[in-house]
Design a protein that fits this description.
single chain, 206 residues, alpha+beta, OB fold (Dihydrolipoamide Acetyltransferase, E2P), DNA polymerase, domain 1, Helicase, Ruva Protein, domain 3, 3 domains, 5-stranded mixed beta barrel, globular, DNA-binding, DNA repair, DNA recombination
């Protein structure tokens, strides 16, 4: 299995990134928060998880090992495949997921596209004794390279559309959280991951 990928970022799209490793372009499926940390032409190291199917080999990339661990762990719950697992890591930072499961917080889990109330209850039941306590690491935060002040809008828009929302819904959610951009900051600019999660919360209330 491929544990991580290190190389120059060749391209970044709506749902994936291509990393040049020794002249071979490897496509990694990534969440919007992870994609926001990548810049074409810049070096990157991404922990990876390979999902093997009869007709495909898919490589998923993550911002850190904790996110990768959550992606792999949630797939051990009944009914959770790679697509839903990636949606979970897109919406909930690792510690947010740990807290939701520890607190039997069905409402938080159902914010994830593809998870209904019964699915959330099943995830809590099956993972509660295995997911561990919050680590105190990032919560809704995204580390990354330099970002223009308004670049987060396009990244959040792409993330929401990639998760199944319509462009109109995405625009409405972005406007709803725009006033948070000044407070949700990293050393490199607006925290795209946190703003994406705030936008998803806004949509869940609509």
């Amino acid at each position: 299995m491929i544990a991580y990928v290190r190389g120059q970022v060749a391209a970044v799209s709506l749902t994936s990134a291509v990393v040049d490793v020794g002249g071979v372009g490897l496509e990694l499926m990534c969440t919007p928060g992870t994609l926001a940390t990548l810049r074409p032409g810049q070096p990157a190291t991404l922990p990876t998880s390979m999902v093997v199917r009869e007709d495909s080999l898919t490589l998923f990339g993550f911002v850190d090992d904790d996110e990768k661990s959550m992606f792999e762990l949630v797939q051990t719950a009944s009914g959770v495949g790679p697509k839903v697992a990636q949606a979970i890591t897109a919406v909930l930072a690792p510690d947010d997921l740990r807290r939701a499961i520890a607190a039997d917080d069905v409402k938080t889990l159902t914010r994830v596209p593809g998870i209904g109330q019964k699915g959330a209850q099943r995830i809590i039941l099956e993972l509660k004794d295995r997911i561990g306590a919050p680590t105190g690491a990032r919560s809704g935060a995204t580390a990354g390279g330099p970002q223009a002040a308004d670049a987060w809008r396009e990244q959040v828009h792409q993330g929401l559309v990639g998760l199944g929302w319509t462009p109109k819904d995405a625009e409405r959610a972005i406007e709803a959280v725009a006033d948070q951009a000044d407070t949700l900051q990293t050393p490199h600019g607006p925290d795209v991951g946190a703003l994406l999660r705030a936008a998803l919360r806004s949509l869940s209330k609509a």
